[in-house]
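Long-time lurker, first post. I've been practising inverse folding by hand and with some scripts of my own, and I keep getting stuck on stretches where the structure tokens seem ambiguous. Below is the full token string for one chain I'm working on. Before anyone asks, I'm not after the true native sequence, just a reasonable design that respects the backbone. If someone could post their per-position residues I'd love to compare against what I wrote down in my notebook.
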């Protein structure tokens, strides 16, 4: 592949670096070779000049239905599209659909294609809003410019995001995929560059009575870049009884800000049986952060892991929960400015327990339990580092 610029290229880096894509700079052009479908970023003279490239598989795993709601190449002002059971929306390659998709109390819906669903013409709402939906499949599409959280399954059961790309997140509180009181959700082979949290698992008081357990969440083979907040976030709203059986594996973080892997357990939820495996973390962004008109202290940003139980400004009840049996294996933090691991329980009845960290490396050096990169308070127990 060859990319040409109008000016001489001084420096070029392709992230995730572990993909091993080596750029060759020749004056105003850069060349590199791709051997398989993938999603990555080409940075010219730093992360502010980044080109996002999505190399799709030749075919999607889902074929277009004969009666699908079809958007072909070109521009479509669709507004809000409401989907019913057994329906498909197909956004073909070359199509730009300005609008959003919603579905409620439906089953067996599909949103597929290689085109773009763009919410930049909308001032509120999600790009994809699913409420009480079972068996939803979202594949191939690019989701662009949300006004807030982008794709949100509320009290759903059985949702798959496959080869989905999220980009153009410039408005405040623009999370990527927020799993709210939902179970059996899979996110795989996807690219998320978001302003706020990339992937969040949340329990909200407003839907607590509809689904009180979040379980069986899988995230695999994804590239994540956030410009605020966290890449992976449990909380900060956790109004559910249990969040359990979550596996996050084979993921790459080219850039992030505060915390790469975070649990802010701010409500009653008991978080248990969570595994992070084979996670590559690169360069934190700490520069020029502002909250409204006030500069922020970013000295602590760049944290690999942060697990905490505490009330927050987002807490929705006064009951505290717990965090138990969380493992981190083969975690590689290869950027500068790593601030390590922070584990913090709330009190003797609401603790962080049984945390296993195995093969955690910071710039090639294995971290041990006595390292000054691991911080705990008195309400944390059963921590092993190996």
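-- Answer (accepted) --
I ran through it position by position. Result:
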């Amino acid at each position: 592949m060859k990319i040409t610029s109008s000016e001489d290229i001084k420096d070029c880096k392709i992230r995730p670096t572990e993909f091993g894509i080596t750029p060759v700079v020749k004056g105003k052009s850069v060349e590199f070779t791709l051997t398989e479908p993938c999603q990555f970023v080409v940075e010219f003279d730093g992360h502010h000049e980044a080109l996002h490239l999505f190399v799709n598989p030749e075919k999607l795993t889902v074929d277009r239905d004969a009666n699908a709601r079809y958007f072909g190449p070109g521009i479509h002002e669709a507004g809000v599209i409401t989907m019913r059971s057994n329906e498909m929306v197909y956004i073909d390659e070359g199509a730009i659909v300005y609008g959003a998709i919603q579905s409620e109390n439906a089953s067996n819906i599909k949103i597929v294609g290689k085109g773009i669903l763009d919410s930049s013409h909308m001032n509120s709402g999600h790009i994809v809003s699913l409420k009480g939906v079972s068996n939803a499949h979202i594949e191939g599409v690019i989701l662009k410019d949300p006004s807030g959280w982008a794709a949100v399954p509320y009290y759903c059961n059985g949702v798959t995001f496959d080869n989905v790309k999220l980009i153009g997140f410039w408005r405040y509180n623009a999370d990527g995929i927020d799993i709210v009181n939902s179970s059996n959700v899979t996110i795989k082979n996807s690219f998320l560059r978001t302003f706020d949290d990339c992937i969040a698992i949340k329990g909200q008081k407003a839907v607590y009575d509809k689904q009180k357990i979040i379980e069986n969440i899988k995230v695999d083979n994804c590239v994540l870049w956030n410009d605020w907040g966290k890449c992976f976030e449990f909380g900060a709203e956790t109004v559910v009884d249990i969040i359990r059986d979550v596996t996050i594996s084979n993921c790459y973080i080219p850039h992030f800000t505060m915390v790469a892997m975070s649990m802010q357990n701010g409500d009653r939820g008991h978080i248990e049986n969570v595994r992070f495996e084979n996670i590559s973390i690169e360069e934190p962004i700490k520069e020029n952060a502002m909250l409204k008109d006030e500069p922020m202290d970013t000295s602590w940003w760049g944290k690999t892991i942060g697990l905490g139980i505490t009330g927050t400004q987002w807490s929705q009840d006064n009951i505290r929960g717990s965090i138990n049996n969380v493992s981190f294996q083969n975690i590689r933090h290869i950027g500068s400015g790593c601030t390590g691991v922070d584990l913090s329980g709330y009190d003797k009845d609401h603790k962080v327990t049984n945390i296993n960290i195995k093969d955690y490396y910071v710039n090639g050096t294995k971290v041990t339990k006595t390292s000054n990169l691991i911080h705990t308070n008195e309400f944390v127990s059963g921590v092993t580092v190996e």
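A couple of notes from the structure itself: The chain is about 0% helix and 55% strand. Residues 121 and 253 are 29 Å apart (CA to CA). Happy to go over any region you disagree with.
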